[in-house]
Amino acid sequence: MERLILHADMDAFFASVIQVLKPQYRGQPVIVGGPGERGVVSAASYEARKFGVHSAMPLWKARQLCPRGHFLPVDGPACQDFSRRALAIYQRYTPRLLPISIDEVCLDITGSQKLFGPPLQIAREIQKAIYDELGLTVSIGLGPNRLVAKMASEWQKPNGLTRITADQLPEIFAPLPVSKLWGLGPVTAQRLQRLGISTIGQLQRISLLLLEREFGLMGRHLYAASRGQDDSPVPLYDGKREYRQMSEERTLARDTRDVELLSLTLLGLCDHLGWRLRREGYQGRQVTLKIRLADFQTMTRSVTLSAPTDVDYTIFQAADRLLRSQHFGAKRVRLIGVAVSGLVQDGTPVQLSLFSEGPGRQRRLSRARDDITSRFGPDVISRASLMAG
Ligand SMILES: [Mg+2]
Fold this sequence. Notes:
5-stranded antiparallel beta sheet, binds magnesium ion, DNA polymerase, domain 1, Dna Ligase, domain 1, 5-stranded mixed beta sheet, alpha+beta, 16 helices
């Protein structure tokens, strides 16, 4: 039986939640983001998008475009609550479910059709339930795998419903710009551009051999993704929120070229990230550094560790090495971030190297600090180097 995957993505989530909770903002341009003018837009209501405001745009620019908009901070607890309630709705339709982010989820509904009817009917029922029970709209994509379903969910928004079948794939994919491919970052897109490849159709004509030579492991992903191939499963949902990655980032108070200042900021981010990983019971082996330059060009660099970790300092060492191997030239940095991915649950047996004494000690240290943090709050302990400044 052909797999059937449904990808659901709630529309303008952070802004919509505010409009549901505070009726005075309904029908109004709402721009959520911050804090401060140097932050970016997390979400813009569709009323605000008419003015050209969109997410990831700097807040000062959004203010220029939409001076009469309502600028509000993200209501974290309310969004978490709506996200949990949406998950409960999705779970009525399948036990195979993977939360991708706070407002996106992927469902395997291959086996759900006998009980709930054809896929379009399931999708419409989900949209109705989300609207009736939460007051939110959700855009849904249906496809033979996660990659295609995700791309279909972006086809029409808001409140969209798009199905892409396996035989429509080549025709629909070919004219799209490569940047539309899921999992393809702007750096790879630029490299492809330089090779004269701007559409997915052009990418389809490049051999696997050539792509692997040019892009390494990413080349294999490009080859499969350009054909709409993706065999990643949707696991059974165990009620715990599944994270594919966890990240922390910070927009600096001022753009800087000072590597030591960036390194110090990174240390603070890794501290918090490690604490979150341990709290949620995850470890990860891939560490990614994200840098956004003053001109908003964003780059990411990753490294894979020999074993999964949740230790602040191990994450920091890896990220710091990536930071110091970067050459920004004359450019200043406005934002720095770190992510840990390839996450496994704490309980998963992990093969430790015989000589990995260090991390064990670091780990116990981190846990001791967590104990104190949970008793006295996060501000009691800071690393000595954080206090120095
Ligand atoms: Mg969304």
